[in-house]
Amino acid sequence: MSQENKKPSSSKRPIRFNPFWLYAILLVFIFVPSLFGSFFSTPDISWLSFKTTMLDTHDVEKIVIINKETAEIYIKTDRLADSKYEQINKSKLRISSAPHYSLRIGSPESFEHKMELAQEHFKEDELVEVFYENRTSIVNLLSWVFPILLLLFFWMMLFKRTGKGGVGPGSILNFGKSTAKLASRDVKSKVTFKDVAGLEEAKIEIMEIVDFLKHPETYTKLGAKIPKGVMLVGPPGTGKTLLARAVAGEAQVPFFSLSGSEFVEMFVGVGASRVRDLFKQAKEKAPSIIFIDEIDAIGRARGKVNAVHSNDERENTLNQLLTELDGFGTNTGVIVLSATNRADILDKALLRPGRFDRHIYLELPTKQEREAIFKVHLKPVIKGNDVDVPLLASLTPGFSGADIANMCNEAALIAARKARKHVTQDNFMQARDRIVGGLERKGKLISPKEKKIVAYHEAGHAVVSWYLDNVESLVKVSIIPRGKSLGAAWYLPEEHQIITKPQFTDRICAALGGRAAEEVVFDEISSGALDDLEKVTKQAYSMVAYYGLDKEIGPLSFYDSTGENERLLGKPYSEYLGKRIDEEVIELITSEYERAKTLLGIYRSQLEELAQLLLKQEVADEKDLERILGKRPNNTVPV
Predict the structure, then answer these.
(1) Tens of pLDDT, residues 467-518
(2) What is the pTM of this model?
(3) Alpha helical stretches, state H, 174-236
(4) Catalytic residues
């Protein structure tokens, strides 16, 4: 085809209507009259000037009263040549039919009365005619139309931003629609099971759920039913949400995720509507997975005890959730995952088989699991050659996966703050101390007397614990203020599944060592042992009232695993038994306190030497402790 026959394509785009044009035109109508009004405005005059210079000289042709407020004055054409009207003659923008002057009147009656008095000596043909007229200007019209248009404008913008004109998923009109985020097979989560460390048993069960959805025929041909729901239960930070994200990354099925609080709104019926919409979407995209995080927000137990604090909307949402969990078949391909750390407060109807068939308990990681978690979180960290991961795992008992991730990040921040090229073992230890005890407060001013009391207090802990078999190994003693404490003794904890009575009593004795040292050395006691006394009192009551380790009370336990006794005003035992429990607790704590004082009396010289070392260098490590106290004995000193 020749170029002559080719039609040149037009580069002009079709003109589309833009609502902002309407807003621009509206602004022009509003501001143009006020902008150009000064050029066309009629000069105002007073009644005295009007009477003396115009009315008395018979220059006025007529007067028009507008809206009973303003009098427009028209001058006779042959009188405009007078010099007193020179200003009007010079105005080039003036319209010929416009009035020459305007006069504000109080009321038509008073104006007419003034006119009668001013014209009482006029002849009949010299009287000035007065006309009345009602007008509606554009400015007055827009004064009440503009607020309505402005309100409509903001509503249109609100609808546009929240849901493209009010029809999108974020629209205000879609209160009852589910707010679940869909992670489809095209947009996979970046978290996989490789990123989840230390949860091997839980991963096996979760991987089985994923396999159910991928290969359902393997199970259904043997008559097995795919579980409807799986509940992840565990303390905060143990990896419940992370495990659900890994399911989204591994499963090649649509994954709906949302929080339990997103169901509940202040509007009645919204939560139940969102539950229905969520399950409707999941069934349409089956096989699929629904993940509800923090399900305790809507799954709290119903009962008469909570009637005063009940929320009808929350209960309606829970009822709808229970109905939906029963409303689809076992092999429809929809599995519900949920996570909570408050399984004790959930409704029993929610936990029964047929709704949540499997409960996976995630506990705090063991030493081996913490080591695996450290390896995962240390991948992006540039660590030094001295970093000992097994030691870090042993020094962090009770740490959750979130705590370990925070510790690795804190260590990297400390190294960066000190302009280090690598993150060393010392940085990790500083991060651990900061997480456990708080930030160092070296600038906190304490008197020499208080510092001496703190030094002997911490030395007392160290000496007593050093000579007790069932207390963990002492690693470091410090009198540097950290957080709310003025000093601390750091131990290398051992993990126990059960605790014996000697372990309980030795720990109570070690905790009372600081208070005992103050009394032995200074013959007076202070308030510095508040945290120790609180801990000791709780442990003693646990021994007597929970674990049944007291000979006098016997093998009785008043521990309530269901949490129902917390709602009762009274105690689960009689007044007589409560008095005996108190007596046994006092006897236990007093005997261990005397035992601590006896130990410090035997090793008074070591106590003095360690306290002086702390006053000198503020920190005593394991080498200093072995130099002063010697190698830790295998047997407890008979006391």
Answers:
(1) 988 888 888 888 888 767 788 887 777 777 788 899 999 999 999 999 999 9
(2) 0.62
(3) 200-214, 217-220
(4) 458
